[in-house]
Amino acid sequence: MIAVISPAKTLDYETPLPAVEPTRARFADEALSLARSAANLTQKRLRELMHISPALAKLNADRFAAFADQPERPAIFAFAGDVYTGLDAPTLDEAGIDYAQDHLRMLSGLYGLLRPLDLMRPYRLEMGTHWAPRRKKLTDWWGDRVAVALAEDLAASGSDVVLNLASQEYWAVVDGRLPAHVRTVAVDFREGPDARFVSFHAKQARGAMARWVVEHRIEDIASLRGFDSDGYRFDAEASSDAQLRFVR
Questions:
Q1: Do 202 and 219 touch, CB atoms closer than 8 A?
Q2: pLDDT tens digits for 137-165?
Q3: How far apart are CA 248 and CA 189, in angstroms?
Q4: Which of the residues 1, 77, 84, 86 has an alpha carbon 20 to 30 A from that of 10?
């Protein structure tokens, strides 16, 4: 089984790294090409596309302009948003990181698909962005390349199950493009007796489940029902073959 999560807008390039052997992202050349095209966007256009402040627009314009010279960092230690708070990668042991390298993937607007130890440069480019070189939107630019890469990784793992812990925005780049034999299972996290959805908590729970999969070396969907981090419990009545619900 391979678990798939979204990237994060918040980045960390300051915290000291553990002793790991980084790998090269398979779409590193594509990322450089996209960054070069994005460098032609004005700060005003970046503000409009990303719905960000002038300060953030300048930061990202500067990043794209000097992308090839930006520092690199393994992806699992570079992303620092809510999902990655739940994942808490810096506290994984060496064996856990090794397992994650084979069984955890991060979707990325700029890098397509990242393994945990793949090197990445700082950027901001959401998968849902309605811009891309010679295309109307980023998912069109990637086409089926991300899905093909994910399917290859899945085959190499000896499994045909993908655990979808990504947001709808990012899952869109592989949705409907994976081989017919691949089984995809999503997870729905809810809160309280009325099973309400709270985005902030759901993001952290996705990261916590990804960590739980890594720590317990989970290989099959049935075993996922035992997930109990942060007070969550499996809700059998509200679950289906395609989606598991957990409530706390």
A1: no
A2: 999 999 999 999 999 999 999 999 999 99
A3: 8
A4: 1
Rounded Cα distance, 179 and 160, in Å: 9
Q: Which residues contact 177 (CB under 8 A, 6 or more apart)?
A: 144, 146, 147, 148
Cβ neighbors of 4 (< 8 A, separation 6 or more) are: 104, 105, 106, 107, 150, 162, 163, 164, 165, 166, 171, 174
Phi, psi angle pair for 59, to nearest 5°: -55, -45
Single-letter amino acid, residue 227: F
3-state secondary structure 95-163: HHHHHHHHHEEEEECCCEEECCCEEECCCCCCCCCCCECCECCHHHHHCCHHHHHHHHHHHHHCCCEEE
Ordered by start, the domain boundaries in the chain are 2-247
List Cβ neighbours of 117 (8 Å cut-off, separation of 6 or more): 20, 21, 22, 23, 74, 75, 76, 97, 101
- Rg of the chain on CA atoms, in Å: 18
Q: Rounded distance, CA 108 to CA 112, Å?
A: 5
- Residue 125, token pair as written in the block: 């480019």
State the Cα–Cα distance between residues 137 and 114, nearest whole angstrom: 20
> What are the C-alpha distances in Å from 149 to residues 2, 9, 152, 172?
12, 23, 5, 15
On whether the CB atoms of residues 162 and 4 are closer than 8 A, the answer is yes
Q: 193 to each of 54, 196, 199, 220, 244, how far by Cα in Å?
A: 42, 8, 17, 28, 17
